[in-house]
Amino acid sequence: MVAYLNLILRLAIWFLLTANFSLANIIIGVSIALLLPGLPKVSGTLKDWLRVLWEIIVAIPQAYIEAFEIIFRPHKYEEVTLEQVKPRRTPGLIFLDIFLITFTPKTIVLKYHEAGWYEVHWVRRRKKV
């Protein structure tokens, strides 16, 4: 099941990049998705995938709320923090985690460290003490 989710993720990224649903592009996208290297040694569970997909659904209204907060109550302080990657993450799940963090207006992932950390830039209303 997880292999199908990886395939769907690869195809979704392909269609987002190309924005073309012609028959030739679909064939190319499926070919590329199948030719990319397979699953890593650590396989993600279906539960992890469903949790990340739910977090993305929840992040959509959160992104709108944060956008309105930034418009009506300016955020003047910036902070860079390190956040640890959740254990047993496949590259697909790490990509979705980075997407989830970057999707909201107040945060963006600056760098992914191979040691298992995300470098996250935050925009805050006031300084943390």
From TrEMBL:
Keywords: Membrane, Transmembrane, Transmembrane helix
Pfam families found in the cross-reference section: MNHE
Entry GO terms, CC: membrane
TM ranges: 12-36, 52-72
UniProt-listed InterPro entries: Cation_antiport_E
Gene Ontology MF term list: monoatomic cation transmembrane transporter activity
Taxonomic superkingdom: Bacteria
Name of the protein: Cation:proton antiporter
